[in-house]
Amino acid sequence: MKENIQAPLTHAIQGSGLILQVKQTGDQLVVVMNCPKQKADAQFQENASKLLEKLTSLDLPTITSAKFYGRREGNPKPEWQQTHKLSALSTQTQEEPQMAVKTLVTKKQGTSSPQNILKNLPELQVSGLLVPALLAGILGVQLLTGLATLFSKPAPVQWEYRVEAVPDITFTETMDLYGSDGWELVTARRAQDSVTDEFSYECIFKRLLTEEN
User: Fold this and answer.
1) How far is Cα 67 from Cα 203, in angstroms, rounded to an integer?
2) Of 33, 61, 88, at which residue does a domain stop?
């Protein structure tokens, strides 16, 4: 798996001068961009964007997030890092077919609405007996629709999740930031980074999935 991922990632930033190290830890992919000492500008952010774009084009069902590190040769500690949730990037392409279905259903329901029936009454050459019957039918349809809505099961609650490694020094500020954005802490455990050997809190957050998220 590592070789299958590292080859296309290396090709994606070809010419950057960076040397990649790729490691999979559970469902997270760790990518370390090593910059040679003689290279003045590493451009970690720009190259990470290229790597992320390449990752989204690959079929990686077992990987849900990617963590990027940027460090200079000779320095064991990274000078730049960033985490991305890969599943969130494909949300837009998954929602488009659903929108098309909703539009189709709305149009289909509109053809039999009470307003359309009343609009077509002149074409039916309505008599004095036909009008009450049509009105009774319209009221019956509306009553049945209301009862169906009343007894229908509510839509299931959907959640979205986020996994982050929070350093000790910024733990309080990070919790306040996520909380103000609607994220709820589900669980946290003490963990050591496999690349930097630094300790932090590996936190799992959740919040209600809405159209605005």
Assistant:
1) 14
2) 88
